[in-house]
């Protein structure tokens, strides 16, 4: 006797949407064996129905307005893959209001509107799967929410934006220009529709918001994340970091502190012998510190059609298995029971302690080193490493230092004083240094 398939309504036929169709078609037999019934895309939305796609749409009813699918009675689960936070929100809430489970890869939507979305889903007793929203194909949501549920999670840090990591890797390994590397990341389907979300750190901040929430049991609080991207990383900084034994990576970092949490995303110098420094290209990694498990790490493709589809389809398997289950038996969306999710005070950035890299280009090297080291000494900042380059072929002289771990406010004072030295050029460069 054949069993009725799980009927999937797919909103968005872009990079990830087509990946989902491809993976469901390719692995149909494996998935049916896991779920006990087929998982089949019956409806999909496409703004341009005449556009050629890389996947076969045979047997799929194509509609132009995704809302018609979100509201359809003969769709069992809605997969939102259009992105954005306005129409996507309406679609997700419309599906939930009709009692349909939802799977989404949309970290922007969840970071900004997730508290409301999960609350609506709870009232209706439906699952909202979002494994694809953080670190693409890496099953990090499941790992934290289920695999590490016995731990108090103290900290996590990782490369959680594939586009930034791809660009930094291309700049480091191939000397490629920033703009060219970004164009490649867009062509490969890694970048957001608006790539400034990637390169200015906003996408990583969306993901960190989600990770911190499920790791620490706090509500989603995007505004609390300190956000910096990679647009200030220059080829010169990459070379100097290498000469000092470091790689520059864009990281998301969340730590518990005595009184709350620390949440930040930024370009970071990492010693070249650390695991995280060796994760290149579109690959992502998340390192976690649990009190029982100790340090552990996950690693894999953080963006791209098939890798992200891997996570979407895993959520569809969870949905298929959960249909008919009592709401209290569902894994809580934010890992903790909703009435036990508690706000945590987030440490202001100027109180965060870390080591720092400072690079200064100077018109003339005479007396420079002495003046800079004097400022650092007066502020009780020790120097862990220093590099000095004499002026050559019309180029300025350069001084770069790595400091000891100090509160950021103190480093800010040092930078302000260094900038005001008469021989210092405008483009003083600074990044945090970490040793994960
Ligand atoms: N591309 C990637 O590697 C990853 C993407 N994501 C997320 O997955 C989602 C989809 O991303 P991609 O597939 O890369 O984007 P995409 O731009 O390739 O595809 C989005 C599709 O949705 C359609 N669409 C957009 N707004 C619409 C609207 N208002 N009405 C109807 N259709 C609309 C577009 O025409 C397009 O076909 C986004 O939320 C993104 O952040 C998550 C992880 C990885
Ligand atoms: N633009 C994102 C896509 C996956 O989340 C990235 O580059 O990581
Ligand atoms: Na994931």
UniProtKB/TrEMBL annotation:
<feature type="binding site">
    <location>
        <position position="107"/>
    </location>
    <ligand>
        <name>NADPH</name>
    </ligand>
</feature>
<dbReference type="GO" id="GO:0050661">
    <property type="term" value="F:NADP binding"/>
</dbReference>
<keyword id="KW-0486">Methionine biosynthesis</keyword>
<feature type="active site" description="Proton donor">
    <location>
        <position position="207"/>
    </location>
</feature>
<protein>
    <recommendedName>
        <fullName>Homoserine dehydrogenase</fullName>
        <ecNumber>1.1.1.3</ecNumber>
    </recommendedName>
</protein>
<dbReference type="GO" id="GO:0009088">
    <property type="term" value="P:threonine biosynthetic process"/>
</dbReference>
<keyword id="KW-0028">Amino-acid biosynthesis</keyword>
<keyword id="KW-0791">Threonine biosynthesis</keyword>
<dbReference type="GO" id="GO:0004412">
    <property type="term" value="F:homoserine dehydrogenase activity"/>
</dbReference>
<dbReference type="Pfam" id="PF01842">
    <property type="entry name" value="ACT"/>
</dbReference>
<dbReference type="InterPro" id="IPR002912">
    <property type="entry name" value="ACT_dom"/>
</dbReference>
<dbReference type="InterPro" id="IPR019811">
    <property type="entry name" value="HDH_CS"/>
</dbReference>
<keyword id="KW-0521">NADP</keyword>
<dbReference type="Pfam" id="PF00742">
    <property type="entry name" value="Homoserine_dh"/>
</dbReference>
<comment type="similarity">
    <text>Belongs to the homoserine dehydrogenase family.</text>
</comment>
<dbReference type="GO" id="GO:0009086">
    <property type="term" value="P:methionine biosynthetic process"/>
</dbReference>
<feature type="binding site">
    <location>
        <position position="192"/>
    </location>
    <ligand>
        <name>L-homoserine</name>
    </ligand>
</feature>
<dbReference type="Pfam" id="PF03447">
    <property type="entry name" value="NAD_binding_3"/>
</dbReference>
<dbReference type="InterPro" id="IPR001342">
    <property type="entry name" value="HDH_cat"/>
</dbReference>
<dbReference type="InterPro" id="IPR045865">
    <property type="entry name" value="ACT-like_dom_sf"/>
</dbReference>
<dbReference type="InterPro" id="IPR005106">
    <property type="entry name" value="Asp/hSer_DH_NAD-bd"/>
</dbReference>
<dbReference type="InterPro" id="IPR016204">
    <property type="entry name" value="HDH"/>
</dbReference>
<feature type="domain" description="ACT">
    <location>
        <begin position="357"/>
        <end position="433"/>
    </location>
</feature>
<comment type="pathway">
    <text>Amino-acid biosynthesis; L-threonine biosynthesis; L-threonine from L-aspartate: step 3/5.</text>
</comment>
<comment type="pathway">
    <text>Amino-acid biosynthesis; L-methionine biosynthesis via de novo pathway; L-homoserine from L-aspartate: step 3/3.</text>
</comment>
<dbReference type="InterPro" id="IPR036291">
    <property type="entry name" value="NAD(P)-bd_dom_sf"/>
</dbReference>
<keyword id="KW-0560">Oxidoreductase</keyword>
């Amino acid at each position: 006797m054949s069993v009725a398939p799980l009927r999937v309504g797919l909103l968005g036929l872009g990079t990830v949407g087509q990946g989902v169709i491809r993976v469901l078609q390719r692995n149909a037999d494996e998935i049916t064996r896991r779920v006990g019934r087929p998982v089949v895309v019956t409806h999909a939305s496409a703004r341009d129905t005449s556009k050629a796609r890389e996947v076969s749409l045979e047997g799929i009813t194509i509609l132009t307005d995704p809302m018609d699918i979100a509201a359809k009675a003969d769709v069992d689960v809605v997969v939102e893959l259009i992105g954005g936070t306005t129409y996507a929100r309406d679609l997700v809430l419309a599906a939930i209001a009709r009692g349909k489970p939802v799977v989404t890869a949309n970290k922007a939507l969840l970071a900004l509107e997730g508290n409301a979305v999960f609350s609506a889903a709870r009232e209706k007793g439906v699952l909202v799967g979002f494994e694809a929203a953080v670190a693409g194909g890496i099953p990090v949501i499941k790992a934290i929410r289920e695999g590490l549920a016995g731990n108090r999670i103290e900290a996590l840090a990782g490369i959680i934006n594939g586009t930034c990591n791809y660009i930094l890797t291309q700049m480091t390994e191939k000397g490629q220009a920033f703009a060219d590397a970004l164009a490649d990341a867009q062509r490969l389907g890694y970048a957001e529709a608006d790539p400034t979300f990637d390169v200015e750190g906003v996408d990583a901040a969306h993901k960190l918001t989600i990770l911190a929430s499920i790791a620490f049991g706090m509500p989603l609080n995007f505004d609390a994340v300190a956000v910096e991207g990679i647009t200030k990383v220059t080829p010169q900084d990459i070379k100097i970091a290498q000469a000092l034994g470091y790689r520059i990576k864009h990281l998301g970092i969340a730590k518990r502190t005595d009184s709350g949490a620390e949440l930040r995303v930024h370009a970071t110098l990492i010693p070249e012998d650390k695991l995280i420094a060796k994760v290149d290209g579109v690959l992502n990694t998340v390192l976690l510190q649990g009190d029982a498990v100790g340090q552990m790490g996950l690693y894999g493709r953080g963006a791209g059609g098939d890798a992200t589809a891997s996570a979407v389809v895993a959520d569809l398997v969870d949905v298929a298995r959960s249909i008919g289950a009592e709401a209290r038996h569902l894994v809580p969306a934010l890992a903790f029971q909703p009435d036990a999710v508690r706000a945590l005070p987030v440490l202001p950035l100027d109180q965060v302690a870390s080591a720092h890299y400072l690079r200064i280009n100077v018109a003339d090297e005479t007396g420079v080193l002495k003046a800079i080291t004097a400022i650092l000494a007066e502020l009780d900042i020790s120097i862990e490493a220093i590099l000095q380059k004499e002026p050559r072929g019309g180029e300025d002289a350069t001084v770069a230092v790595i400091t000891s771990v100090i509160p950021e406010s103190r480093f800010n004072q040092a930078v302000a004083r260094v900038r005001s030295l008469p021989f210092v050029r405008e483009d003083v460069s600074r990044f945090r240094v970490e040793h994960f």
